[in-house]
Amino acid sequence: MSRNRTARAGVIVAILATGVALTACTGNTPETTTQTGSQGGVKVANDEPGKKVVIGFSAPAADHGWMAAISAAAKAEAEKYSDVELKVVEGTNDVSLQISQVETFINDKVDAIVLLPFDGAALTPVALKAMKAGITVINVDRAFDSPFAARSTVLGDNYGMGVSAGTYVCEKLDGKSDAVVAEIAGIDSLPLTQDRSKGFADALRECGLKVNNRVAAEFTVESGEKAAANLLQAAPRVDAIWNHDDDQGIGVSAAIKNSGRGEFFLIGGAGSANVMREIKADNGLHKATVVYPSTQGADGIRLARLAVQGKSLGDLVEVEVPRQIELFAPVVTKDNVDRYLPTAFES
Q1: Distance between CA atoms of 257 and 56, rounded to whole angstroms?
Q2: Which of 117, 178, 200, 281 minimizes the number of CB atoms within 10 Å of its CB?
Q3: How many CA atoms lie within 13 A of 232 on its CB side?
Q4: Beta strands at 331-332 and 286-291: parallel, antiparallel or unpaired
Q5: Which SS3 state, helix, strand or coil, does residue 220 take?
Q6: Structural domain includes residue 15
Q7: How many domains does the chain have?
Q8: 18 in a structural domain
Q9: Quick check: 164 and 222 in contact, CB under 8 A?
Q10: Which residues contact 47 (CB under 8 A, 6 or more apart)?
């Protein structure tokens, strides 16, 4: 490993430590004991019942495993608190309908809205309207265009996913300067896909590798199978493949099986339970996956409750909840899979 990569690894470890601390406070599995923290020198019992908080929750349609897990975790989190009333609307990929859902929350005068927008830019105006009406908006996963549209934002680290995947490839192919690396991306027009690809390329560059073959899919099983089949046909030899999304990875795996190929190893993306079980069994091509936390909706519920009740994150000295939380993108291997499997989503 180069000196630059060693230094970068140190930075990533530091970020991981911070990410773990934040996730411990906002994850969807709180400790059974009361969580307390320092808020301006005063002890705060974050999980003790307080002022009732009515939260509206809206997200895209649960048309794949990760999105289904987002909504399920949000509902489960709300049920843990006797002082939270959650109003959930049907998931939709229709921007106009989602805007209408938020308008309804505003008219109902809810205390907070946890919103994973189908399109962050399109939902920005109605989120601004909610904030101006005195409603606490927590933005999840897809950022709004205006910093005034949300009290707090919970994001996954898309660029960090690419860095984590690329760093893992570098470590596995250490010293193999002629290695052929392939990438199966998601929807190329989305900024999140672009960020993942940039992080992957940047990390590979650190060890003298590059993406030799790249195709894009659409985060679906069918598109994953088609994209992987095209990739394998175009590349007679591959040493490593990073697939951005474990849901589309079901199709990727089907295409690989049909091809009869297996000279490479696979790195998944997002962190599905089925991929983690394969990693744990160590009997397939998947040797790792990079987590894109499906706890973000649950984190949003927790932050909304804390913000409305005037509480802070228990492990921070700051007396307010943070403006933004970016969750870490760890690599899951057979060595640490047991830690991540309990919160993994089913594809």
Answers
A1: 44
A2: 178
A3: 19
A4: antiparallel
A5: coil
A6: no
A7: 2
A8: no
A9: no
A10: 30, 34, 35, 81
